Amino acid sequence: MKKVVLSITVSFVLLLMYGLQNRVSGSVIVDRVIAIVNDEIITLSDLQREEALKKSDAKVDEHLLLEDMIDRKLQMAAAKRAGMDVTDKELADAIADIMKRNALDTKQFEVALAKEGLTMEQYRMELREQMTLSRMVGKYVRSGITVDEAEIRAYYDRNLSIFTLPEEIRVRQIYFPLPDGATQTQIAEVKAQAQAVYERANKGEDFINLVRENSRGPDPQDGDLGFMQRQHVLPEIEEATRNLKPGQIAGPLLCAGGFHIIRLEDLRTPVKSFEKVKEEIMNTLYQQKVENTYRTWLQTLRSDSNIENRL
To answer: What is the C-alpha to C-alpha distance for residues 298 and 141, in angstroms, rounded to an integer?
Structure first.
């Protein structure tokens, strides 16, 4: 049976970016009031139930978790005051849609909930809270937030290092292949040929003409291998280029079935173009604004409320 995705808000960042965390029911323990939020209370058993819902091996910070619970109560109370409660019909429609998307009938859905440690009534309560919080965030946080072109450009200019790609080298080569199963004598002969051409190049002869006259490989564009990231270049060639400046040559280098004489044509450290990263930057800036607006809104709710934390 398909697993139904059952999620609720545990923290705002998860609400905005990844959805809402799975919840399971916890056992009731001896209670005491650990927080008062206006005319509502949060008990120790409430807190420990929330800890159980985390399903995490890592130790949960109880103080942070309690603050999150307080924030959710404030938001639910604000929703009630603003008349933004989720109606029974809206809730029923949402559950019906979830069952439809997962191809489950009511009985199968209840079985799936039970595997998550939830009854249908518990799930209805959790889903109602999730839908309400999402609605509140949409109205009081997301609405009106925009990111303009100037902000995106400014972020790009300030953070070019983020968008810088690995260094690339452009190499031109003269290639002397070795015959299959070459003997030591044949290897020495090919190396001598390559050495002779290297010395001519080193004395200043036109390198491209030497490529055309001597290179025996299927070299495109007169031996120009184009720009390549260093990690994609043959190790022997990459190492040799580290001691070269553009226009300088090295060789003969034995690798890839033959001897190579190389000339370093150019070096560059490319940067992703603005157009390629524009949407990524816009999403980053939008997320930052949403989180900042959310914190400000929460602070307003807190300042207008009576909160007593006894933990």
So the answer is: 10
For residue 244 the two structure tokens come to: 């070269």
pTM for the structure as a whole:
0.65
Residue-wise pLDDT for 160-184, tens only, equals 999 999 999 999 999 999 998 889 9
CB 173 within 8 A of CB 240: no
Q: Are residues 119 and 196 in the same domain?
A: no
* Statement to judge: residues 199 and 291 lie in one domain: no
Q: Are 126 and 23 in contact (CB under 8 A)?
A: yes
Task: Name residue 274's amino acid.
Answer: F
Structural domain boundaries enclosing 88: 12-147+284-309
pLDDT digits (tens, 9 = 90+) for 78-93: 999 999 989 999 999 9
The answer to whether residues 254 and 290 belong to one domain is no
Q: CB under 8 Å to 139, separation ≥6 — which residues?
A: 82, 84
Q: What is the CATH number of the domain that holds 185?
A: 3.10.50.40
Residues 6 or more apart whose Cβ sits within 8 Å of residue 150 = none
